[in-house]
Amino acid sequence: MLAFTIYDKKKKELFIFRDRYGIKPFYYYLNEKQFIFASEIPPILAVLNKISSPNYQMIFDYLVFNRTDQTEDTFFKEIKKLQHGHCIKVTSDELRVTGKNG
Predict the structure, then answer these.
(1) CA 29 distance to own-chain centroid
(2) Structural element, H or E, at residue 5
(3) pTM for this structure?
(4) Which of 32, 28, 31, 58 is nearest to 43 (CA)?
(5) pLDDT tens digits, the chain, 102 residues: what are they?
(6) Full set of structural domains in the chain with CATH
(7) Cα separation of 69 and 82, whole Å?
(8) Paired strand residues for 15
(9) Most buried residue, 8, 50, 62, 74, by most Cβ within 10 Å?
(10) In terms of DSSP H, where are the helices of the chain?
(11) Strands across the sheet with 95-98, in order?
């Protein structure tokens, strides 16, 4: 039961991992200027200091089918969720998500 982040100061890379059971959540926001992450969505919204756009498809899927963990999408278009068993590598050029098989 874990999710962790390691920052390599020499390479200026961030490595993030979420355990395969997905008990500990990991949410993130990325734009051209910043990468924000937290274990809950409200702290990300507080840092953004703006109203985030609702993701109506995810809200519908939750209300009708009780689905919340099928994709990286959340109730907010700009905020993503790292799927269980996946990792992220963040460099100055890109954010790359790799899954259980790769």
Answers:
(1) 7
(2) strand 3-8
(3) 0.86
(4) 28
(5) 788 899 999 999 999 999 888 788 899 999 888 899 999 999 999 999 888 899 999 999 999 998 877 889 999 999 999 998 899 999 888 888 888 655
(6) 3-98 (3.60.20.10)
(7) 10
(8) 6, 89
(9) 74
(10) 41-48, 56-65
(11) 3-8, 13-18, 87-90, 95-98
